[in-house]
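Q: Hi! First time doing this. I have a protein sequence and I read that you can turn it into a structure. Is that right? Here it is:
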Amino acid sequence: MNHKFPYKWKLTDLPEIGVPYHGAKVFSCFACGGGSTLGYKLAGYNVIGCNEIDPKMMQVYKENHNPKYSFLEPIQTFKFREDLPKVFYRLDILDGSPPCSSFSMVGNREKDWGKEKKFREGQAKQVLDTLFFDFIDLAKKLQPKVVIAENVKGILLGSATKYRTNYVDRIYKAFDNAGYYCQHWLLDASKMGVPQRRERVFFITLRKDLAKPFLYSKDVFNILPRLDLNWKEKEISFAKFIDNKDNTIQKETGATKLWQICKQGHNFSEYHPKGHYYSFYKLKSSDIVPTITANPGDGAWHPNYCRLLNRKELCCAGTFPQDYNFLNNKEQYLIGMSVPPVMIAQIATKIYEQWLSKLD
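A: Yes, that's right. Below is the predicted 3D structure, encoded as structure tokens:
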């Protein structure tokens, strides 16, 4: 079965791969190393620039994308800028992935809500669970046609549904106040042509003054713009891109000792006396690669060689270009921090086909 977008590709393949270029304009916030931007390029968009707080990620972004506009600063100050070019007020899509560790199913979750946190690269401290609303403030100011905001599944689960009277409800109310109809989807990248099980929540909004041709009654209380986000992509197993050429064995650690006794298709924690290493997994070749995390050592290990996934395998699983320049950053860290480009490409294509192309 052919997939709409390739999971093994190179930057030099653009623009021949993906969908035909239409040039709808995107600006990316919380851009990280450029995963979302890659997806929009695959989907035929013109990404005019980015906002990012991490200087290391901005270096990677500039190296690979050479953006016309780039702003290395917190969104809390960026949203107040009065010197933005006119093109920023004519965007088709404002894209953003507000840092999400406060809602991740691993880590501190509730203990970190409302607290300032500092990222490992040494940026300014931020209260992570308010960044979403800074992003919506920017949308209210710029008034793009569409806003796409990505976050982790944990934002929908557990105590997050009670946090400050339901965090998701607050997002909906903020978008409504900014002039947008809002909907959200929980999507699994493995169903969208990405060789990785990665569930992410996408809040997708359409500006109210543009929405009349697309409105329908969801129920007696909700009127929303119709958007069909369904895919029929076949899942892609590790066997499709397993690389047995680069088999540099990991140095001996507690994890490597567990790999020796762990059966394929099982979690390392099953073999640890205290159940540690719960995020370490020994693949079977028929498996779909589990979620790639930013933490070194976590996640998928090769079934036959005592090693983590190598660069080629990580790029395929994350749908990053094989020739992407990660500079001095670990591939797993950057890919784990990013939305898979093909995931964004699939969503962005649907939005263009169903909304934007009909507004032009």
